[in-house]
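REQUEST
  id: r-88c1
  op: predict_structure
  target: Serine/threonine protein phosphatase
  payload:
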Amino acid sequence: MRRGVGSAFLLLLLAFSGFAQGVEAFRQPALASEASYTMVILPDLQNYVKFERNQPLLDVMMNWVVARKDSLHIGMVLCTGDLVEHDDIINPDGRKMDQTGRQQWEYVSGAFQKLDGVLPYVTATGNHDYNIFSYTHKPKTTHFPDYFYAEKNRENKKLLREVFTNVYGEHSLENAAYEWVAPTGKKFLFLSLEFAPRDTVLSWAGEVVAKDAYKSHTVVLLTHAYLNYKNQHIESMSYDLEDANPGQAVWEKLVKGSKNIELVISGHIGGKDNARKHVAYRTDKNAAGKTVHQMTFNAQAMGGGHYGNGGDGWLRILEFLPDGKTVAVKTFSPFFALSPSTQHLAWRNADYDAFTFQFD
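RESPONSE
  id: r-88c1
  status: 200
  body:
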């Protein structure tokens, strides 16, 4: 082949491959610095769990987290709650869901088992994890403690420091605090609270974060329903519950008055195939004048809505940079990353999905 013809042929191949058009080649998530560490946020999982057909997508996500543990220096996995669609259903209709409540709990517990003994994780409980959708029981009850308990993951057990009682008066991981020290020496306290926490829970949480043992820690609060997609605190909820605090009340009764809660992570919200309606972010000052970063991340209605594929495999990666203050937020789908034909969809790069923030 003559040189001129060969060069033209090569350019044609490049054009078809996308490189000549300036399309960036696919890349797996990587650290900006080898001195960084990361945390992974899993959104509401209910729509993966409620259909047997969707469950393999959650397996893909969990397998990806385990496989990237070392290369991304993953130190913690956080889940925003709604682990199941229905806490106690025994006769699913096959359209809204095809798994019973017990099947849903058994599956999601098994999905997290991929992390057991490998990585610590903290999960909130969401409204779907309670029985409020089938009855008007007061107070709200859940099978969460039967499937997520202190001994389930030895990595969690090492970090568990504080536990409070659930509505049965029993100590449960529905309300718990975990201490974790980053490779840089930065101390974190992860505080997970039940859906729409009761006043007694908020009082307990306030006492925990004020303890001398945690005054120098950066407290990360994990709770399910906190911000709406307009970046506002949720002021009310349409559930027949007594002694239940939505996001605005959680802010007023706990976060605002604290001196070391610096990051709040939540889920709950969404709109069919609308990424923007699944996320929120705002900052406010706490009692110590520190900036509180408040972030909602969800994906449950991506991939076809509530009866679609469960959420297109989206998760969020928080990279904590070596300066000890800066956090880079990235939104990625291990599901789309599986195939060369969908890898161009594996990153979300809008300003609400890819940004940085700084602790004071």
